[in-house]
Amino acid sequence: xxxxxxxxxxxxxxxxxxxxxxxxxxxxxxxxxxxxxxxxxxxxxxxxxxxxxxxxxxxxxxxxxxxxxxxxxxxxxxxxxxxxxxxxxxxxxxxxxxxxxxxxxxxxxxxxxxxxxxxxxxxxxxxxxxxxxxxxxxxxxxxxxxxxxxxxxxxxxxxxxxxxxxxxxxxxxxxxxxxxxxxxxxxxxxxxxxxxxxxxxxxxxxxxxxxxxxxxxxxxxxxxxxxxxxxxxxxxxxxxxxxxxxxxxxxxxxxxxx
Length: 258
Ligand code: ADP
What we know:
The protein is α/β, with parallel strands linked by helices. The chain has a single domain (12-256), classed as P-loop containing nucleotide triphosphate hydrolases (Rossmann fold, 3-Layer(aba) Sandwich), CATH 3.40.50.300. The chain is built from nine helices and eleven strands. The chain has helices at residues 28-41, 58-61, 105-117, 137-145, 159-174, 205-212, 225-228, 230-233, 240-257; strands at 12-20, 46-50, 70-72, 75-77, 79-80, 86-89, 123-130, 150-155, 179-190, 197-198, 217-223. α1 crosses α9.
């Protein structure tokens, strides 16, 4: 019987960055999107891979409508937004976004590998990957399947979160993927009425974590109504907060991978 011809992977991706946390709800997907957008705004060619298979939320954060998967020759085409960001998510493959992905390990691993070998990303400067949470086998599959250049770890300044993030950072070390640095989300809150800045969590949890792993704090993102409304209302690109956050993320990422 004839074997199907093995297709060559046509993707040329200069930098693959994984965005990881350890604990759910700290803003990993939000930071993935903001980082990708920040790099796009600097003129780079950027893709986002939503590899958080069981908790895929990138399409919702980016307001992507239900997408009919398209095929480009032997490959799956990613969605391309108006601003030119290429996106792929498991949500595009299920009937509706509330449908759970109840797949066992081997099937999940296969899907992850297809996101690399079967998606026509083309030439990109950065592919930003929203990692599966924690130290699960899916996270390990991503680390083994993608030639990652480094991880950005997202954390919040709470000791409970730091401990769990530290576990994921140790896993990255063991898998020999460099830690590029930490993004502290929900660092502080700026009162929309009086402008006062309040740090309602611990003071220097993230700095302690950075010291422990010999890495650095790349950016601090405040808790804000604007970011809380991102999934429902989108981002105001003109706001001071958005510009500052995007600027920090783009600068730090480009510098760390230079
Ligand atoms: P994760 O991917 O870690 O589970 P998400 O990025 O999905 O986290 O964020 C969890 C929730 O917190 C979402 O509703 C998101 O809009 C909100 N969120 C994230 N970062 C911020 C922030 N800096 N300020 C306000 N809300 C935020």
